[in-house]
Amino acid sequence: MRVSTAQFYLQSSQQMSSKASDVNEQMAYLTSGKRVLTAKDDAVSYGTLAGYKDDLANIEKYKRNITQAESHNSMQEVAFSNAEDILNKIKNEIDPSLAYRRSCAHGVCGSCAMNMDGKNGLACTKPHSEIEGDINIYPLPHLKVKKDLIGDLSGLYKQYESIEPWLKTNTKVETTEILQTKEDRVKLDGAYECIMCACCSTSCPSYWWNGDKYLGPAVLLQAYRWIIDSRDEERETRLKKVADELKLYRCHTILNCTNACPKGLNPAKAIAEIKKMIATANV
User: Fold this and answer.
1) In 10 A of CB 147, how many CB atoms?
2) CB 102 within 8 A of CB 123
């Protein structure tokens, strides 16, 4: 039978306490005066006292070890600080077949996006203490499920590829760095931080029903990021590419995307800015 560290030290401590009790009984007998003590008895008594002191020291050592073991166990309990830790516990010790995406564990890669307690988010940054009652975890809504908590994001990635998310210039070979003013750089804040986790897009009803044509909040936020980049020389082309009734105008600004974004970004605002640029540029 396997016992925990704390149980081991507790059992050892009980054994040492029992031994200490035996020693006390022996000492009481030797000092009771019921028989004449000899020099040999004195030696036995001295040895018994020395052993008793050693036993007491061992008991204190075991008590310290018990305290350390209990502290270690409490630290293990605190270690389950987020939903991903709970999933890891289940996969490692209960059901190895459980499938879900994970990578950085620091809210950077977006791999562990899923629906927890009815709201989209990242499992690695979702404290389980914030989830009331039973912990209900599902894959991102309205995606084809590959297995367990893994949704099929291939359609979203194709849409992301369609906006050509890279810097485009008319110069074939750049010999110097393309500079940007501080003011122009600040315009990218709130857009470049997107990690493409799809929490926003899969919380959008328009994307649920028109996901094959409507680009969705995540992709449109990325499109906006390149449209407003002062170093990019294809702004008009980019605007024309998204200026479509289904690609862009399925957004009805209900702000589900903004509420769902685990990075605190505002895709709805970016979509509104694209609409305004198209309206004023007569694209």
Assistant:
1) 11
2) yes
User: Which of 128, 255, 135, 144 is closest to 203 using CA atoms?
Assistant: 255
The label of the residue with tokens 């750089």 reads 185
Instruction: Kindly report, residue by residue over 67-104, the tens digit of the pLDDT.
Output: 666 555 544 554 567 899 999 999 999 999 999 999 99
CA distance 124 to 122: 5
Class of the 83-150 domain? alpha beta
Task: With a cut of 80, say whether residue 165 has pLDDT above it.
Answer: yes
Q: Give the pLDDT band (50/70/90) at residue 134.
A: confident
| Phi and psi angles of residue 132, each rounded to the nearest 5 degrees, phi first | -85, 140
The CB-side HSE value for 145 (13 A sphere, CA atoms) comes to 12
**Which regions of 69-211 does DSSP assign to beta strands (E)?**
113-116, 119-122, 137-138, 145-147, 150-151
Q: Characterize the bridge pairing of strands 137-138 and 113-116.
A: antiparallel
Quick one: 164 exposed, middle or buried, by C-beta within 10 A (0-12, 13-18, 19+)?
A: middle
Pairwise CA distance, residues 29 & 22, whole Å:
11
- pTM of this structure: 0.70
Give the C-alpha separation, 89 to 96, whole Å: 10
Domain spans of the chain, in order of start: 5-78, 83-150, 153-281
| CATH architecture for the domain at 153-281 | Orthogonal Bundle (1.10)
